[in-house]
């Protein structure tokens, strides 16, 4: 029987992990030709998540647990969990049911048909329509500026052949933008479209800062366009400034006594150029931050304990 690994990152998901475990178990009960391991990697939850998982793992050896020593963020922990999987194929899915377990059978079927990567693409969503629209705009932006073909509306939910995981193990990524890495590998990717359901229970642990961090990482990891735009806008504003300066100069020469320049244009100009400079210093800072993180060579996570490995 072929082994399939299911990797589920979780953080304070005490309301969802037991039900998710049951749903995944039910799916594999119908897949007679496969055995599975379900790896929960917990990012230092402060609620009862770990205790619930240990209770489940004590009676079901298919359940494996990795507990991180501290919260290492929503990018490092899932990637590390994938690297610990031993299956011939690995399925990554979150614990809040926005990645439907019912798609697992379809992932495996397409994997059997020869696809090394099968991903879930959310074409519609039952979440907040404003948030979904913002996400769609972001995915479209990343797709348009990226140096490699990106998958729109893809969050990482999907199946990855063990050969793909082996390649990812060779990557020395300290802050991995997983959905970008998958697109960058070059494998033929099969997409399964689905409507994203609402979170089953509890509240999302993502906030503005984590989402902004993810957005900027995706932008600077796969495109140098922001830096090119900085150069372009800098050239344009310099040219416009020169033209305006010459206009004021000749106008003052012609109407020496009647034309008073005043301080308003000076103040407006200073604030405008200062804001442009600060904006692009921030963009450059994002690129430097990615380089800085990579050069420190710190581990993705530090484990506190493992169960059933």
Task: Give the arrangement of secondary structure elements.
Blueprint (H helix, E strand, L loop, with lengths): L1 E9 L6 H13 L4 E9 L6 H9 L5 E6 L4 H11 L5 E4 L11 H9 L4 E9 L3 H17 L12 E4 H9 L7 H8 L3 E8 L11 H14 L3 H30 L9 H33 L6 E5 L2
Parallel strand pairs: 1-2, 1-4, 2-3, 5-7
Antiparallel strand pairs: 3-8, 4-6, 5-6
Describe this protein with a few key phrases.
single chain, 309 residues, alpha/beta, eight-stranded mixed β-sheet, 10 helices, 50% helix, elongated
Order of helices and strands: EHEHEHEHEHEHHEHHHE
Q: What is the first-to-last residue Cα distance?
A: 19 Å
Q: Report strand %.
A: 15-25%
Q: Which structural class do the helices and strands define?
A: alpha/beta
Low-pLDDT runs of 5+ residues are none
Quaternary state of the chains? single chain
Number of helices: 10
Looking at the structure, what is the overall shape? elongated
The average pLDDT value, as a whole number, equals 84
Quick overview of this protein structure:
It is built from ten helices and eight strands. The protein has helices at residues 17-29, 49-57, 73-83, 104-112, 129-145, 162-170, 178-185, 208-221, 225-254, 264-296, and strands at residues 2-10, 34-42, 63-68, 89-92, 117-125, 158-161, 189-196, 303-307. An eight-stranded mixed beta sheet has the order 7-5-6-4-1-2-3-8.
Q: What report would you give on this structure?
A:
The chain is α/β, with parallel strands linked by helices. It is 50% helix and 17% strand. α8 packs across α10 and α9 (225-254) runs antiparallel to α10 (264-296).
């Amino acid at each position: 029987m072929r082994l399939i690994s299911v990797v589920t990152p979780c953080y304070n998901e005490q309301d969802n992990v037991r039900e998710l475990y049951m749903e995944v178990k039910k799916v594999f009960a119908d897949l007679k030709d496969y055995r599975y391991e379900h790896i929960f990697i917990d990012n230092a939850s402060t609620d009862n998540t770990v205790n619930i998982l240990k209770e489940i793992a004590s009676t079901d050896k298919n359940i494996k647990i990795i507990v991180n020593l501290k919260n290492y963020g929503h990018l490092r922990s899932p990637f590390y969990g994938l690297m610990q999987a031993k299956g011939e194929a690995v399925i990554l899915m979150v614990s809040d049911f926005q990645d439907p377990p019912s798609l697992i059978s379809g992932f495996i079927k397409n994997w059997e048909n020869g696809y090394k990567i099968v991903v879930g693409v959310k074409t519609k969503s039952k979440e907040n329509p404003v948030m979904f629209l913002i996400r769609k705009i972001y995915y479209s932006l990343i797709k348009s500026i990226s140096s490699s073909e990106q998958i729109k509306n893809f969050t990482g939910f999907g199946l990855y052949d063990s050969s793909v995981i082996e390649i990812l193990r060779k990557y020395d990524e300290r802050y991995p933008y997983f959905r970008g890495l998958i697109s960058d590998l070059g494998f033929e990717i099969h997409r399964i479209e689905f409507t994203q359901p609402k979170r089953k229970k509890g509240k999302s642990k993502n906030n503005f800062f984590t989402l902004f961090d993810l957005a900027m990482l995706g932008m600077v990891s796969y495109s140098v366009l922001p830096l090119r735009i900085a150069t372009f806008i800098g050239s344009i504003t310099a040219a416009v400034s020169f033209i305006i300066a010459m206009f004021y100069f000749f106008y003052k020469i012609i109407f020496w006594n009647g034309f008073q320049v005043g301080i308003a244009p000076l103040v407006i100009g200073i604030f405008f150029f200062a804001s442009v400079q600060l904006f692009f210093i921030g963009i450059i800072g994002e690129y430097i931050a990615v380089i800085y993180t990579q050069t420190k060579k710190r581990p993705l996570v530090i484990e506190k304990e493992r169960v059933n490995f």
